[in-house]
Amino acid sequence: MKSEQECREAAMKLELPQMWSTRRLSFRIVTREDADELYEALCEDWTDFLL
Amino acid sequence: MPWAKNGIPPKSVTVDFANKALSRFKAREDLSFVLREQHQVVGTCSVPRLAWEVPVFEIGYWLRASARGRGLMTEAVIGLRDYLVQYCNPLRLEIRCDSANAASRSVAVRTGFLEEATIRKSRRNNQGKLADETIYAWFPEEITEVNR
After folding, report:
1. Among chain A residues, CA nearest to B80
2. Domain spanning B11-142, CATH architecture
3. What was the ipTM of the complex prediction?
4. N or C, which terminus of chain B has less Cβ within 10 Å?
């Protein structure tokens, strides 16, 4: 049986797309350039957002 | 989300998260995607826990207030669920949410996840108060027309 570390190293060889889209949404891996916009969105209504 | 405790976190927490996300993606430690609708950030949908040795993955999400009520997070979770099935070969996917968060639980149900258990007093909510956690699970072999 492979160890947890071996499994993760094998996973690092998978070619996972960093961006794709659905009908209305685009997905992209978070980068440092997203920080300001993410924080603004997060602050919009802190008391009631989805967790 | 572990960082969402005791009220709004300082901006440095978001900056630190954003700075590390790409390296964590490359290390397969977590997969965090920013969601945009017509260029506006509406939230994130992510995989904060990856147990590759099983493999089991947990999906997490949040949506800005002004984007709610239009099924965007349902669309996002289905998108990420299908991404994981296509590229990561999961045996099991999980959603864990605050039991008192009806909106979050509703997303899990609408995307075909089944409720498995509620773990009492096992987390802090974003007000810092003790909360129960409900676990939902989804298995690739259980794909039906309803949750496609």
Report:
1. A27
2. 3-Layer(aba) Sandwich (3.40)
3. 0.88
4. C
